[in-house]
Amino acid sequence: MDGAGDSAVQAKVTPQDRLSALLAEDMAAVNALIRQRMASEHAPRIPEVTAHLVEAGGKRLRPLLTLAAARMLGYAGGDHVKLAATVEFIHTATLLHDDVVDESQRRRGRPTANLLWDNKSSVLVGDYLFSRSFQLMVETGNLRVLDILADASATIAEGEVLQLTAAQDLRTDEAIYLQVVRGKTAALFAAATEVGGIIAGADDTQVAALRDYGDALGIAFQIADDILDYGGSDAVIGKNTGDDFRERKLTLPVIRAVARADAGERAFWERVIERGDQREGDLAEALAILRRHDSIAASRDEALAWSARARRALDNLPVHPLRDTLSELADFVVRRLF
């Protein structure tokens, strides 16, 4: 009985949990720095809003990637902690802004900051965190790191603006979708791993491998999330199932169904996505159309292909327990779909 219980517990330990355990000391330093730098002497609402999101149970995947990249390549300094905190601040700032843009009400299973406070507070606190992130990255004194993270911040914003125009336009194809995903998710994954390698003095081949790993991991991660929105439990994805449908977002499963739609199905998508005329039972109808065209299965195959690409990128990096865990992580982000 005890053995069976131990096996059940072991099965619940994810690669991200193992990454957290391997980097526990570094991550404790990152968390302490985050709490220190999100403080504000003159505007107490800033730490209130920030703490609501930062302490909401997120597993800090992006800063873990920075720490893992640096340690895997033998870094022994302290700047990787500043860069990991920078990455988390950028991520948190984008979440605050995204929830305002999307009019979201839940994030990580909790009410969003814009719902608990207001849109103005969320936007301004997000701006504050962006400013804090640039202060931290400048403190490393590494211009290459500054260039990468600044570029990632611009790419994230560009991706969000592109999504505004593309998300409800049935002409949006897979190439545009991939551009949006690279902006909103993969850009920060790629930057997180890349700067970890740079601060460790990695050579160009290793830096490129880290960037490719982060990019492919981020794309696989986002496609998986988009699939789960049409079939995952709220507990798994941290938001309401069907949110993307209600927000009229053209994600990969829908794009593939639209490409194969007959006249009646296209009229349905035009009504619910382009015109926003959604009625009771429409989500169920959307799911039926997705199943009819195997859109979920095809999107799952795409996520698996990006996961495999991420694992291959690691072949150019040193043998290390952290490399093994990063490989398992790339597999895990898509295994959620099965």
Structure characterization notes:
The chain is mainly alpha-helical and 338 residues long. The protein has a two-stranded antiparallel sheet with strand order 1-2. Helix content is 74%, strand content 1%. It has a single domain (15-335), classed as Orthogonal Bundle (Farnesyl Diphosphate Synthase). It has helices spanning 2-11, 15-22, 24-37, 45-54, 61-72, 79-102, 113-116, 119-139, 143-166, 174-199, 204-228, 234-237, 243-246, 252-259, 263-274, 282-292, 295-313, 321-335; strands at 106-107, 110-111. The protein has 18 helices and 2 strands. The longest helix has 26 residues, at 174-199.
Runs with pLDDT <50, length 5+? 1-10, 233-239
Q: By helix and strand content, what is the structural category?
A: mainly alpha
Question: How would you sum up the major sheet?
Answer: 2 strands, antiparallel
> Secondary-structure element sequence?
HHHHHHEEHHHHHHHHHHHH
CATH superfamily: Farnesyl Diphosphate Synthase
Helix percentage: over 70%
